[in-house]
Write a structure and sequence with these properties.
Oligomer: single chain
Strand order of the largest sheet: 14-13-12-11-7-10-9-8-15
Largest sheet: 9 strands, mixed
Structural class: alpha/beta
Helix content: 25-40%
Length: about 450
């Protein structure tokens, strides 16, 4: 029994909910602000969570949520498009967490509508970790159902999805629902201290920023004879833009987000180059293997952005900023003066952001605080999409025009079956069409 229970077994949750209803009386109409959740401090009560998207990242996020302290966290429902992945994740999490995983068959859902079923369950928070193209749809459903949300980055793959997320963020704020985005550097203490030092003027005015995600090609999932085209693309989702957004969106968003965070702003223009120089197989879908973008912020600060999936090349995942009084190796947590000597080093403050973001979220919920990271999560996602649009077009593009670009990559609301038509198709040779900079006319009204 909770230490906050009354002699009759009423929990802190019930007490706060009932008190809030008494104060509000009949002033709130049906369908308006969810008073119980808006006023709710979980304290040491059990927090029930659900998981939508049972791949590696989703399973890890659920595990990390159950690692938090201050009170029990129990996984009570799971959903995935694929039953095999759902079952494998449930078994793995049950082995790892034992009684913290209470997901009977009736609360395990598969298929395109699985996310709808999980929102009907009695749970407090839902983790959204499907391929990111589905994120706007699932986020909208979660907030409509009155659930707190932890969602992985990126939160969309096209500007239409970003706008949809921004609209849902506003609804979440009205309902006083927590929204946390898996841009975990915001919760790494070494990053937090370094960014604050820069923002407090340690290196003067920023004149140049550099951001990198250069590494190797991630996993590839081979086509099976039994797969429809749609199932193949969903299982090999990293290489299809409607699902992933290209690696500048799926991975490099982390580094772009750090520079946005430091600047407390978003780029005004972008131009760049990209292509697919070495990654030539059919299995790599329609994505580039390198992007190089020059972003310019409204105050004239330039960010040079580079991401690459090419073997035997220089690998680095890092961010740097240069100012009028010094510079910072942000990822290395170091501040340098104008003489090149280190004046601050925050490297010993801790860097396990994937776990820390859950510690912070659940601590906030238990204390009655309601964090909302949805806006910067959406706009940093848009920064990465903006960069992709620049490299795909070969043009210098304008932020506002790109943010309002109307054509989505796919209609995610329409999918009902794995036999449905895929948004893109291979040619007769089995290869997918790659963007060609300078070709096509989709970018004509987006130029700066």
């Amino acid at each position: 029994m909770s230490t906050n229970s009354s002699p009759k077994g009423t929990t802190r949750r019930d007490f706060i909910r009932n008190s809030s209803l008494l104060v509000a009386g009949g002033a709130m109409a049906a369908g308006s602000l969810n008073i119980a959740r808006a006023a709710h401090s979980f304290g040491s009560d059990e927090i029930k969570i659900g998981l939508v998207g049972c791949g590696g990242r989703g399973s890890d996020a659920a595990n990390q949520a159950m690692n938090t302290s201050g009170g029990p966290v129990k996984l009570v429902a799971m959903a995935d498009a694929f039953e095999d992945r759902l079952n494998a994740s449930a078994q793995s999490l049950k082995r790892a967490k034992g009684e913290k995983v209470d997901v009977p068959k009736e609360r395990m859902f598969s298929g395109f509508d699985a996310y709808k079923e999980i929102m009907k369950c009695d749970l407090d928070l839902v983790i959204l970790a499907t391929p990111p193209g589905f994120r706007p749809l699932h986020f909208e459903a979660a907030i409509a159902a009155g659930k707190h949300v932890f969602m992985e980055k990126p939160v969309a793959t096209d500007p239409a999805g970003v706008r949809r997320v921004l609209n849902t963020v506003r609804v979440a704020k009205e309902k006083n629902l927590a929204v946390q985005v898996g841009l975990q550097r915001h919760h790494e203490r070494k990053y937090m201290a370094t960014v604050k030092e820069i923002q407090d003027g340690a290196i003067g005015d920023i004149v140049l920023a550099r951001a990198y995600w250069n590494g190797s090609t991630p996993w590839v999932r081979p086509r099976q004879d039994s797969y429809t085209e749609l199932e193949y693309q969903m299982r090999n989702w990293y290489y299809f833009n409607w699902l992933c957004g290209d690696h500048i969106v799926e991975q490099h968003i982390h580094n772009l987000d750090v520079i946005n965070w430091i600047k407390n702003a978003y780029p005004k223009t972008a131009q760049g180059v990209g292509g697919c120089e070495v990654r030539k197989g059919r299995e790599y879908g329609e994505t580039f293997d390198h992007h190089m973008v020059e972003f310019t912020y409204p105050d004239g600060t330039v960010m040079l952005s580079e991401c690459r999936h090419q073997p035997e090349c220089w690998n680095i995942v890092a961010e740097y900023v240069h100012g009028t009084k010094g510079r910072s190796d942000v990822s290395g947590s170091k501040i340098y003066g104008s003489d090149g000597k280190i004046i601050k080093n925050f490297g010993d403050l801790g860097a396990d952001g994937h776990q820390q973001e859950h510690h912070d979220l659940f601590a906030d919920l238990r204390a009655g605080r309601v964090p909302n990271e949805g806006e910067f999560g959406a706009l940093s996602t848009m920064t990465a999409i903006f960069g992709r649009m620049a490299t795909y077009s070969g043009q210098k593009l304008d932020w506002d025009k790109c943010l309002n670009y109307a054509v989505p990559l796919a209609n995610f609301d329409a999918f009902k079956s794995l036999k449905d038509e895929a948004p893109v198709k291979p040619g007769p040779d089995g290869f997918y069409q790659l963007p060609v900079p300078g070709k096509g006319d989709w970018w004509q009204n987006l130029k700066a």
